[in-house]
TrEMBL record, chain B:
InterPro entries: PTS_EIIB-like_sf (IPR036095), PTS_EIIB_2 (IPR013011), PTS_EIIB_2/3 (IPR003501)
Lineage: superkingdom: Bacteria
GO biological process, one term: phosphoenolpyruvate-dependent sugar phosphotransferase system
GO molecular function: protein-N(PI)-phosphohistidine-sugar phosphotransferase activity
Domain PTS EIIB type-2: 1-91
Alphabetical keyword list: Sugar transport, Transferase, Transport
CDD domains: PTS_IIB_ascorbate (cd05563)
Protein name per its UniProtKB record: PTS sugar transporter subunit IIB
UniProt cross-references to Pfam families, sorted A to Z: PTS_IIB
């Protein structure tokens, strides 16, 4: 009898969909929502997680022939970085760990914002989910298990959610002209690099907003259209190199190789579309609860928001940034083709969102020149970083897609390599050490501040 | 009545916008309005009575019907003013 109950408990905890539904149930009860909303919200979260797994199936089905064709044509591995794709695939194996790390990581974020000087609450929920997933993979590969795995993962996530917005804030203040909102999008290192480069090269360069620029690339914002078009182009080019005989005999069951490629390209976009709807359902209850609880517990915190919040401040820099970053991606790809064993293909979506943001950051510090050079470097960064991330992702390093944004790569590379050299203990010491550092640093700063205010007689 | 907040991928910005709209509606003491968010591709004219987006994406929304365009999703005052105006026109305020 007791054994059956234990089995029931274990099975519930190992089912990520059930787990994430429970998390949302708890959140809704804490907020004292009416029963109808509790039932609705919990069910939607449950549904959302299963929708993501369905999307993962479609993505894998489309990426598998892509990887084979690329291998056949060029004798190297070709990778299309896409967060949604890699996360959906990873959740099949690491779903429960991800759900636990995400839940306790958000609590860690609130605690860190409360007790250190890193007063940022990271509200870009989908990036929280993706980062939790990346950490789950890295830490499991490093050998951590059970409760230590969840604790270390959550501390790392909480710290990452507060540190990266803090790094962006000096330039963010410059862009928005106030200090009320933070910036929460996990490619911060690319943006800050762009801002710093802008400072170096941008002396005397005028702002991007002083030039008259043609509009009309608005359709690039429509992500499903953009993904469909780019994947079709990539697929068709690679099919042409792989040749009709290989594709038709090995992959397409005899149907015309170009037709097959076009269908597969759009299938990838269909998979991402489904995953996005799933992610939206999963986050629908969790993010408002997180926002509500954090504003209550840390009243002086700043919300860190998704990257498009900076786009209206410099629409021309958005366009320049995208093109320049994409150019960086192409240059990076050529360099990899000449030297490496893996080729990272430039995805339009990551280059659009991170390139555009890097453009706005570069423009804030260095005008047109800053925006152009800064986002070009961002393009190079998000092309080269995945090459170093993939080896530490274990089996997931071989699925023809990977994380696309800089902070995922850098956090993963750092933790993954610490794990490789010093094992699970090394990772534990690193994460706990960094959290303590943040707390201690905040404590001293606080003392200094109060000393200062005493001196001023405030 | 249903209000739909829109952004490029329908994940981050539009979600913040939805939460801001909900906060304003409750400040104004209006209930019974459904607020949701989604991406540009999924939005169809019949999916809501009123659409809201920041100006950087508004050019792609011409087909949707009644659209409130705001300067920036973090500009609560601008959003409140525009929302109040539309709700007054509709006789809900």
């Amino acid at each position: 009898m007791g054994e059956r109950i234990l089995k029931l408990m274990m099975d519930i905890l190992s089912q990520p969909a059930v787990l994430i539904a429970l998390i949302s149930l708890v959140g809704l009860i804490i907020q004292k929502k009416p029963t109808s909303e509790i039932v609705k919200g919990t069910t939607k979260t449950f549904l959302g997680f299963l929708v993501i797994s369905a999307g993962a199936g479609i993505i894998t089905q489309s990426l598998d022939p892509f990887g084979k064709m690329f291998q056949h044509a060029f004798n190297v591995t070709g990778v299309v970085p896409n967060n949604e794709a890699i996360v959906a695939v990873a959740l099949n194996e690491f779903g429960s760990t991800t759900a636990f790390i995400m839940f306790f990581g958000m609590i860690a974020n609130i605690l860190i914002a409360r007790f250190t000087r890193l007063k940022y609450i990271f509200l870009t929920g989908h990036h929280t989910l993706y980062m939790a997933c990346m950490l789950a993979v890295i830490l499991v590969v490093s050998g951590l298990k059970g409760i230590p795995l969840i604790i270390i993962g959550s501390l790392a996530l909480g710290l990452i959610m507060a540190v990266f917005p803090a790094i962006c804030q000096p330039i963010m203040r410059k862009i928005t002209g106030n200090n009320n909102v933070g910036f929460g999008h996990f490619s911060s290192l690319g943006y800050v690099a762009s801002g710093l480069i802008g400072k170096l090269v941008g002396k005397g360069s005028r702002s991007t907003e002083e030039i008259n620029f043609p509009k009309g690339l608005g359709f690039l914002r429509d992500s499903s259209v953009t993904i469909s078009l780019t994947m079709v182009v990539l697929y068709v080019i690679i099919a042409l190199f792989a040749g009709p005989s290989y594709v038709e005999q090995e992959l397409s069951n005899g149907s015309h190789y170009l037709v097959f490629s076009i269908i597969q390209g759009v299938t990838f976009a269909a998979g991402v579309f489904i995953i996005l709807s799933g992610v939206r359902l999963v986050l629908a209850e969790i993010v408002p609860a997180f926002k509500g609880i954090s504003t209550k517990l840390v009243p002086n915190s700043k919300p860190a928001l998704d990257c498009p919040i900076v786009f209206p401040y410099a629409p021309n820099a958005v366009l320049i940034g995208f093109f320049s970053s994409f150019a960086g991606g192409i240059v990076g790809m050529v360099i990899l083709a000449l030297t490496g064993s893996v080729i990272i293909l430039p995805g339009v979506v990551p280059h659009f969102f991170t390139g555009a943001t890097a453009g706005v950051f570069g423009n804030a510090t260095g005008g047109v020149r800053g925006a152009t050079v800064g986002s070009f470097v961002n393009g190079l960064l998000i092309t080269f970083l995945p090459v170093f991330l993939m080896p530490v992702l274990g089996d997931l390093g071989f699925v023809s897609t990977t994380f696309s944004d800089a902070d995922f790569a850098v956090s993963g590379i750092v933790l993954g390599n610490v794990a490789k050299s010093f094992g699970a203990t090394g990772v534990t010491i690193t994460v706990v050490g960094l959290v303590l550092l943040a707390v201690v640093f905040g404590f001293f700063k606080k003392n200094k501040d109060s000393n200062n205010s005493q001196k001023l007689g405030v | 009545m249903k209000i739909l907040a829109i952004c490029g991928t329908g994940l981050g910005s539009s979600f913040m916008l939805e939460m801001n709209v909900q906060q304003i509606l409750s400040e104004l003491g209006i209930s019974g309005i459904e607020v949701d968010h989604c991406d540009l591709s999924s939005a169809t004219p019949d999916s809501a009575d009123l659409f809201i987006a920041a100006k950087d994406i508004a050019t792609g929304m011409g087909h949707l019907g009644e659209v409130i365009v705001i300067d920036s999703i973090i500009d609560m005052d601008g959003l409140r003013a525009k929302l109040q105006e539309v709700l007054q026109q509709k006789g809900l305020l």
